[in-house]
Amino acid sequence: MGAAFAHKIASRGLNVVLVARRVPVLEASAAGIRDTYGVEVRTVALDLSAPDAIWELVKATSGIEVGLFVFNAGADDTSCAFLDKPVDAHRSLMQRNCTAVMEAAYHFGAPMTARGHGAMVLVTSGAAWAGGAALSVYGATKAFELILAESLWAEWHDSGVHVLGLVLGRTDTPSLRRTLEIGSDTSPGELADPNDVAETALEHLADGPVWIHGSASPTGGSPLGSLSRRDAVLLMSRPRSARTG
Ligand SMILES: NC(=O)c1ccc[n+]([C@@H]2O[C@H](COP(=O)([O-])OP(=O)(O)OC[C@H]3O[C@@H](n4cnc5c(N)ncnc54)[C@H](OP(=O)(O)O)[C@@H]3O)[C@@H](O)[C@H]2O)c1
């Protein structure tokens, strides 16, 4: 998803900063973007689960006017029952999906509001709508991002800064393929295309606070809205293959 965002942003003539942990993947992606769009690309190899990650990112981007920030890294392709995972793994997920997102919004949002223009996309998930078995900490972090995006939109939209909580359904990424245990040669079926997701999100930056990709009502509320909380949780707890979106 992050690579798709980077390509769509660069295709608009904007320079990009790419963040991930694997240097070879970052560099290959950066080279492809430079060659295709002729924009400047900076790579920052960082583990966003590290407590000082956003401080490192702020230092690595000093001198750059960051006009659009997409916080995308956030999937959990090791989802399992709450007690089947070490507590440190839960803590690490919360650090990347909550603390780092909050700190990034704070440090990169402040100059945007001072300038009176900019945009921030927080990528969240249908797992934010209700709890469910094997979703526990992941779903809770995605709910955190959704509420944070809505709240920042409420505070910043009059100052010219767009905030979009981008809610994804099942999207054809390596992470999801690992979760579903399908190989790269298998037809993705009903999965969304990351390029379509990124393009749609960038077209709708001003339509926040929330954009639900693939929904008939993309600016609407939870698709589970009319269910009781118990029925919603039971639905979310069904095996992935029996769920949609
Ligand atoms: N795919 C879906 O079906 C789906 C559904 C709902 C919501 N979402 C949301 O969409 C977003 C993107 O998901 P995705 O499927 O593309 O998988 P992802 O695992 O979030 O994204 C993978 C990318 O993020 C980087 N990354 C992961 N952990 C990182 C860390 N600790 N520090 C720095 N970079 C890190 C990875 O590079 P490195 O491994 O090199 O670090 C890779 O480039 C997530 O927020 C996810 O919650 C996805």
TrEMBL record:
Segments forming a coiled coil: none
Keywords: Oxidoreductase
Keyword rRNA processing found: no
Pfam families from the UniProt entry: adh_short
The keyword Protein biosynthesis is annotated on this UniProt entry: no
GO MF terms held by the record: oxidoreductase activity
Family: Belongs to the short-chain dehydrogenases/reductases (SDR) family.
Entry-linked PANTHER family: RH59310P
Name by which UniProt lists this protein: Short-chain dehydrogenase
Upper lineage: Bacteria, Bacillati, Actinomycetota, Actinomycetes, Kitasatosporales
